[in-house]
TrEMBL record:
Keywords, ordered alphabetically: Kinase, Signal, Transferase
Protein name (database record): CotH kinase family protein
Organism: Flavobacterium macrobrachii
Short name of one Pfam family: CotH
GO molecular function annotations of the record: kinase activity
InterPro entries according to UniProt: Bacterial_rp_domain (IPR044060), Secre_tail (IPR026444), Spore_coat_CotH_CotH2/3/7 (IPR014867)
Length: 496
């Protein structure tokens, strides 16, 4: 490189004029900064397409004056010569970068180039800064929508990357060839690399989780009229399904003519619709031994009617969602949904519900009742949901039925809906983790819940040992909620 040559006495770089830069390049830190700044500029300001674009802009301004210049001063020699000079500039801009990089490699003993590919989870959430340049549209030579972006750098020259979050978001983690949770990282490699900066909203962590689940498997007595059925999975308190029959005197014994009429009974009709393995000890549906629950004709008797009442405390939860699978087997046309929020005798209402009647079909389908807009459903120990039935002939008694399965209630924990910066003091390591996630804390009794990043509850329990085995998890980002003494803290970690 002429810039660092010694012994020269004339243009362009006599030895005295390069003394300072030569001395600076003896400093290892400055040398790396020089090489990376050179690469940064070649990947942005001096990209061939940008140099050609700037040259064309200048040319378009002076082009109308060229012929007048020639006529008056006889220079340039001709208009064609001037046009050809623009081609020379374009060719120089195109071939020069490879020559410049060869100069750098030769001067500093670098073996070869590498491609650095950068991406972001969402360009509206943040961007990446590589060494000295920000990869966004404010940097000359960077496209308006740059991601994924690729630049040419040098083998074994450390490249510094920094994830920069935009207002309203925070950096979460890197993915690709790095899974670090540090916003600023350094990569030194001899091969191409690709990384993505992942950003998340800078807001409370809100995760929807199951808080009740009714399991209708072979442990539920068959061919027996039921009056109540407790939830098999619950978080705030025991969930109770209470059944009201339209026939006075229900339940009846086998000697009654009303035996197994207008009744709630187990039925062998499984479906995987709305099945939640994590609410059933992580048992896959295929081996869950699921059955079903039937409501039998008749559905009305005078002013009385069959009704399913779900007593589901929502204490500590908000954004309540009630869901189930159901099908009509020649008994009813639709299900009517109401709720009550008071203690004592229920006061049934459908106020605020977007939908109150859910048409049934002959095949199982999923029904979702969104109660998240009901203010009184939040943190309410007395919350109840009632299901009733409508149809053309609700007094008909032919032994037909409506069948239910996989009834669930989900919500967002009010404790989980807090920023990670709480008064509790839990530490998790290593992060990222391959198999055992160690937990450091000072509390006597700790409950934990492990969630996927999309809010799915994976496992829960009492933290008996100061560790959680995550070997069976797929690679990705997860959250674990620790609860003790009525307080909770959420920690994020990455499974390698």
């Amino acid at each position: 490189m002429t810039l660092t040559a010694t012994g020269g006495t004339e243009w362009p770089n006599p030895e005295w004029s390069t003394l300072i830069v030569r001395r600076l390049l003896e400093n290892a830190e400055f040398k790396l900064s020089f090489i990376n700044r050179f690469a940064d500029m070649m990947n942005t300001y001096f990209l061939p397409e940008r140099v050609i674009g700037v040259s064309n802009q200048f040319a378009s301004v002076i082009e109308p004056e060229i012929q007048g210049q020639i006529d008056r001063w006889a220079a340039p020699s001709s208009y064609i010569w001037w046009q050809q000079s623009q081609d020379v500039i374009e060719n120089f801009a195109t071939v020069r970068p490879a020559i410049q990089r060869e100069h750098i490699r030769t001067k500093f003993g670098i073996t070869g180039d590498i491609n650095a590919t950068l991406n972001v989870s969402d360009a509206t959430h943040g961007f990446v800064k590589i060494n000295t340049v920000e990869i966004n549209s404010s940097t000359p030579g960077v496209a308006a929508n740059p991601y994924p972006w690729t630049g040419i750098y040098f083998q074994n020259i450390p490249v510094t990357l920094k994830a920069v979050a935009l207002p309203g978001f925070v950096f979460s983690h890197w993915s690709g060839d790095s899974n670090s949770t540090e916003a600023e990282i350094t990569i030194t490699t001899t091969s191409n690399f690709s990384v993505t900066a992942n950003f998340v909203p800078d807001a409370p962590v809100e995760v929807e989780v199951p808080i009740y689940f009714w399991i209708f498997d072979s442990t539920v007595t068959n061919d027996t009229p039921l009056t109540t059925l407790n939830s098999r999975f619950e978080v705030p308190a025991e969930g109770v399904l209470q059944y009201e029959s339209c026939l006075i005197g229900y339940p009846f014994d086998a000697t009654s003519p009303n035996w197994r009429k207008a009744s709630m009974e187990r039925r062998n009709s499984p479906t995987d619709i709305n099945y939640i393995p994590e609410a059933n000890s992580n048992i896959p549906f295929a081996t869950s031994n699921m059955r079903g629950l039937q409501i039998k004709q008749p559905f009305q008797n005078g002013t009385n009617e069959n009704a399913m009442i779900f007593n589901v405390s929502t204490a500590g939860y908000k954004d309540i969602k009630f869901a189930f699978a159901a099908k009509n087997e020649l008994a009813a046309d639709a299900i009517t949904v109401e709720y009550s929020t008071v203690s004592g005798t229920p006061s049934w209402t459908s106020a605020g519900l977007a939908q109150t009647s859910y048409p049934l079909t002959a095949a199982y389908q999923l029904f979702n009742v969104d109660l998240s807009t009901i203010v009184e459903a939040v943190n309410n120990a007395d919350f109840k949901v009632r299901l009733r039935f409508t149809g053309a002939n609700m007094t008909e008694d032919l032994g037909n039925r409506v069948t239910f399965n996989n009834i669930s209630v989900k919500g967002v924990s009010l404790n989980l809906s807090v920023n990670e910066n709480t008064k509790l003091n839990f530490k998790v390591f290593p992060n990222p983790v391959a198999d055992i996630l160690n937990i450091v804390h000072q509390y006597d009794s700790v409950d934990y819940k492990l969630f996927s990043i999309d809010g799915k509850l994976i496992q829960a329990g009492l933290l008996i040992n100061p560790e959680i085995n995550v070997n069976g998890l797929q690679p990705g980002i997860y959250m674990v909620q620790f609860t003790t003494d009525g307080k909770s803290e959420v920690k994020k970690f990455i499974k390698k």
